[in-house]
Amino acid sequence: MDAAFTEEQHEIRRTLRELLLKRCGPDEVKAAVRTPPGYDTQLWQQLAGRLGLPGLALPTAYGGVGCGPTELALACEETGRVVLPSPLIATAALAAPLLLALGSERQRTALLPALAAGELTATLAVPGGRLATALALTGPNDGDWAGGGRAGGIQARRVPEEDAAAASRNGGRPAGGGWRLYGEAGQVLNGHTAEVLVVAAHTGGFARSRTLLFLVRAADAARPGAEPGVPGLLRTRQTAMDETRPQARLELRDVPAELLGEGDGDAAAVARALAATGPVAAAALAAEAVGAADTGLARTVAHVRQRVQFGRPIGSFQAVQHRLADLYVALQAARSAAYYAAWAAGGGRSAPEGAGAAEPGVGALALAQALEALRAVAAEAVQLHGGIGFTWEHEAHLYFKRAACDELLLGPVHRLRARAAEEAGLFPGGAGEPGGAPIPDGAPEAVEV
Questions:
Q1: Each residue of 89-126: pLDDT tens digit?
Q2: Least confident of 10-19, 87-96, 127-136, 166-175
């Protein structure tokens, strides 16, 4: 592995950092999250048009920049520094890789250039809050995580062609490839504004039970010139502790959908594509957490240099210096892990046969390391800022909330580590002790590696 960045990668970081420092201070962030979209749409268009941010990891054939997960992770590190609210993770790290891996040529040509240019945003909707499981980050995604016929999931059913044709003749929207979706999903990143929804749904009943991915074109009614909303689709923005990571609940009542890909769908291919997307999303989220932790630590160091107690700056006390030194070491370890995870996700392994596939467990392990580092930095920032640090209005809580909610989104940390150990083959008999059974969902026991 060559740890040196190229000049192009350095330029991406410099340009993005300069722009965000001018446009995205704490006050601007707090104002943006209180708008209906939950982010600054003008800034997002500037990031997409000037820097090609959502298309960094997309091929040039589909309007992208032609880079890879490393460049996307470097961009996410910079957006994490300012805790930027944006649809970057949902569009570039979740939806776009799945469209590229599974979509037909028609679907790729129609959607990917628009996503790369920022004309459309997209997201992945997984029912039951099982996003980490669907991406194979906290467990294998070979089960009925999309509902499996039970309440709380999303079900897909075919529509007879005559019904679809009748709907079209009567002025209704066509049935989008002959599928309808019914169910609900919560904690969908940017789900209330994304124009393209990649929805995981269960189909086939008991006999041919399988999980497939479907496309729903959910135009934003607030956008000028947008298409009417999809019949049967209700999107509600959820109240979240971390307002910089807007989430939504989707309710689908016989919503027209189109199968992602061609033919009748391949459940095994869907599981492989989701598992391959997991390391990319984990590396991007880990880099974002590293950027947030870096800024949180820098601002805490600046504060302890200025805050005077007992006639001297509190940063001069050895106990405070030790705490900050521990945070710095944890941050540098997390940064190295995030960079390596992005490099591995891009197929940068030294062995030729490993090209194009992420090293087992690296993404989950890097994400666990970064989330722990951000959580530790945020907690110390609140404490070392003293009385003002405990107020919700202080900027330290932007990082505290991000740390708490990111672990809820793709964690928890102990399950990320357990999955990494399982993928690396440390425990052949399961995720617990050698010869033991795998850890069931919700079990308090954890495997620390």
A1: 999 999 999 999 999 999 999 999 999 999 999 999 99
A2: 166-175
327: CB partners within 8 A, 6+ apart: 293, 297, 373, 376, 377, 380
- How far is the C-alpha of 330 from the C-alpha of 335, rounded, in Å? 9
Cα torsion through 257, 263, 266, 270, rounded to 10: -50
- Distance (Å, rounded) from C-alpha 187 to C-alpha 402? 15
Q: What angle do CA 270, 271, 276 make, to 5 degrees?
A: 100
What is the pLDDT confidence band of residue 311, given thresholds at 50, 70 and 90?
confident
CATH homologous superfamily of 7-115 equals Acyl-CoA dehydrogenase/oxidase, N-terminal domain (1.10.540.10)
pTM equals 0.87
Token look-up 């039951």 returns 128
Q: How much is the average pLDDT of 209-220?
A: 85
The angle at the Cα of 282, spanning 280 to 283, to the nearest 5 degrees, equals 65
SS3 of 180, please?
A: strand
CATH superfamily of 269-423: Butyryl-CoA Dehydrogenase, subunit A, domain 3 (1.20.140.10)
Q: What is the pLDDT of residues 216-266, one digit of tens each?
A: 998 744 444 444 568 899 999 999 889 999 999 999 999 999 999 988 888
Domain map of the chain by residue range? 7-115, 122-268, 269-423
Contact 192, 121 (CB under 8 A): no
Q: Is the peptide bond before 412 cis (omega within 30 degrees of 0)?
A: yes
Long-range contact list for 33-41, CB < 8 A, 24+ apart?
33/85, 33/243, 33/244, 33/246, 34/243, 36/222, 36/237, 37/192, 37/193, 37/222, 37/246, 38/85, 38/190, 38/192, 38/193, 38/237, 38/243, 38/246, 39/84, 39/85, 39/86, 39/87, 39/246, 40/85
